[in-house]
Amino acid sequence: MRSEVLIWGAGAIGGILGAYWARAGHPVKMVDIEPEHVEACRTEGLRVEGPVEEFTQVVPCFTPDELTGTYGQIVLAVKAQATEKAVHALLPHLAQDGYILSAQNGLNERTIAELAGPERTLGAFVNYGADWIGPGRILFGNRGAVVVGEIDGPIRSRTKEMHRLLQVFEPDSVLTDDIWAYLWGKLGYGAMLFATALTPDSMTTNFADPARGPALIGLAREVMQTAVAEGVDPKPFNGFEPSAFLPGASEAAALKSIADLAEFNSKTAKTHTGIYRDLAVRKRNTEVDPQVGNVAEIAASHGIETPLLRRLVELIHDIEEGRCEMSADTFHKLTKVIR
To answer: In 3-state terms, what secondary structure has residue 155?
Structure first.
């Protein structure tokens, strides 16, 4: 029998996975803290919308207080800042020989490993475009890279099993023995995405604006310098070329990667980041501290200064707390840091 998978967090990332797995007949359950979303998923079904594919799939879904049983495979797909609380809540449902797969943005595998044990932690990198747009509705804007690997490197039978499961959703999913290379690559790209959320403009508009290029490039360089200090060799994906932002790389290489990112994001129905939606639509705090702020702290431990990353964290908090608006002027408060 195929083992049942539990997805903790049925939003943009987890909901897409759950809908695809359930449609393929794989036993899966989802957990979410939004009662209306839970009810919609388990009754009328989860509606996947957008240009990639459209379908509705009923998926067994529960609020945390309703869930019973233990599971050998738990996919954690909550916002980074909710990781610690979610892990504490799900641990009673994790089988002794089971594992938690982090399908999140950031370095949440570190937190999971501290709480659940490194031997019960798997890493994943996801870059497909999706948005939670309402109870029982998720926009699937574009396909993107999906990678899975063990946090200590060596590929095991369970890693291969999860890879096969991810291929149900993304046939081009990658099985790697260096998941940190992809996670740090996403952090570099992610820092730039946070910067795009300083404005109401689309991701493509931000990447295509020459005046915004220096700040975007500077952010990626600070992250990549930190990755090198951590002993990581970041891997490329979907237009983001980490080597273009490593120490010693040419300006031309960085500009080409920025142009490639503008091209990649011009082909998605997800025109703005989830960060933008958190700020402008859902009016809630973003993942800026556990992503951008965390990189700045790691950099400091290596004696690396990150003025752009730290200013970006401040500006996102300014928007969250109503001290400034999303605008090009707000973005260029970043640009002033490098002048």
So the answer is: coil
